[in-house]
Design a protein that fits this description.
Blueprint: H1 6-11, E1 14-15, E2 38-40, H2 47-53, H3 59-68, E3 72-74
Antiparallel strand pairs: 1-3, 2-3
Length: 107
């Protein structure tokens, strides 16, 4: 047997959007999915969304709403090649300016 099993692939999934950016003009989970696809998780959605998902012509909007609220399981998006390259491990705080003092007039 070569490659990861189906069970291993399912265990690697995370809730949508999972770091994915949807191309402009596309509806996530309706006419666009990540390359590895997505698994529907209606069991995680409220009852009203489950009903909405089955309504003809309106279901496309339910797909989008579910995408933005974790209703699909997806493979995590790959990290950009230069992710974290210029971010220091220990944050560097900017230097503080000396405090200015103002003398108050005597009463």
């Amino acid at each position: 047997m070569s490659g990861p099993s189906m069970w291993d692939q399912l265990q690697d999934r995370i809730p949508s959007p999972g770091g994915w950016s949807v191309p402009e003009g596309r509806r996530p989970a309706w006419n666009w999915l990540p390359p590895a696809g997505a698994a529907l998780r209606l069991d995680l959605m409220p009852v009203w969304v489950r009903v909405w998902y089955h309504v003809p012509f309106l279901d496309r909007y339910a797909h989008v709403w579910m995408w933005h609220h974790g209703g699909w399981e997806v493979q995590p998006a790959p990290a950009p090649p230069d992710a974290g390259a210029d971010v220091p491990r220990v944050p560097v705080l900017p230097p503080t300016a000396p405090a200015a003092s103002v003398e108050l007039p005597a009463e």
